[in-house]
Specification:
Elements (H helix, E strand, L loop, with lengths): L3 E4 L3 H12 L8 E4 L3 H11 L2 E3 L2 H5 L4 E4 L6 H5 L3 H7 L2 E4 L6 H8 L4 E5 L9 E7 L5 H12 L2 E5 L5 H10 L1 H18 L4 H21 L4 H7 L6 H11 L2 H22 L3
Parallel strand pairs: 1-2, 1-4, 2-3, 4-5, 5-6, 7-8
Antiparallel strand pairs: 6-7
Helix pairs in contact: 8-13, 9-10
Length: 272
């Protein structure tokens, strides 16, 4: 049986664990989580009936999959005392930390089969979008296992090169914040147009939810969906013309270019 160890029991680990149990993908008895916080360990035990540990070595003792859910800046320090055990056991290693390359993860951990995963915060609600890239040593069965584990939080998409992980970071990793900024701006604009804050907020959030669901469910591309709700001479056309006049597309491209550059810079700063 596949025993799964999580190093770090924070939001991302919680979202994956919650998804796995919600989907009945893994027996909670096969999940071990290490976290330095006693309160967090107690919460995980109460919510999910998983095993928790104060020490990382205890969590990985019999693991066939180890999911690294710690901050990038802590990764080297966390892996150093685990390297001997990981080298001997050779579990599938999955990292959800940004900016740490496969070769670096392999060197720090001693593991050969390593998967980099770039999730986003909607994983907490089961609507996440995660990009995945695997080292050559990852077998087909291990890729399928990674699909199952990460897919429990939403969708999981494999990319062809590790460099594409930076693009995933810029698109879906940072993407929720782009939409939150748009929502924030629409709420503020609605208030200026005379709506109450509560009304502007509720209508904005429901509109965002509806547009996302409509686009996801439709076989029609977003550009065509936009055209279908943009009547000639109508209100939407005026709004879209204002966005286009402000070069919204160029702004989005520049923002994502900046995010991708920063992802690459983080990789260098973290010692890759």
């Amino acid at each position: 049986m596949t025993q799964i160890a999580f190093i770090g029991g924070g939001n991302m680990a919680t979202s994956i664990i919650g998804g796995l149990i919600r989907e009945d993908a893994v027996n909670p008895d096969l999940i071990h989580v290490s976290d330095p916080g006693e309160v967090q360990r107690q919460r995980l035990e109460a919510d999910f009936k998983v095993h928790t540990h104060a020490e990382n070595l205890d969590a990985i003792a019999n693991a066939t999959v180890v999911i690294l859910a710690v901050k990038p800046q802590m990764m080297k320090e966390v892996l150093a005392p685990l390297a001997a055990t990981l080298t001997a056991r050779q579990p599938l290693l999955i990292s959800v930390a940004a900016g740490i390359s496969l070769p670096t993860l392999q060197a720090w951990s001693g593991c050969k089969a390593v998967v980099r995963a770039m999730p986003n915060t909607p994983a907490l609600t089961g609507t996440g979008a995660t990009g995945l890239f695997a080292s050559d040593e990852v077998s087909l069965d291990q890729r399928n296992l990674a699909d199952t584990l990460i897919g429990a939080t939403g969708i999981a998409v494999w990319v062809k090169t590790e460099a594409e992980i930076d693009a995933v970071t810029a698109l879906s990793g940072s993407g929720p914040a782009y939409y939150f900024l748009m929502m924030e701006s629409m709420i503020a604009a609605g208030i200026k147009l005379g709506l109450s804050e509560d009304t502007a907020r509720r209508l904005t959030l429901q509109t965002a939810l509806g547009a996302g669901k409509m686009a996801s469910a439709s076989e029609v591309a977003p550009d065509e969906l936009r055209r279908r709700v943009t009547s000639p001479g109508g209100t939407t056309e005026q709004a879209i013309a204002t966005f286009e006049g402000a070069h919204l597309r160029d702004i989005v491209q520049a923002a994502m270019d900046a995010a991708a550059r920063r992802a690459a810079e983080l990789s260098d700063e973290l010692g890759n």
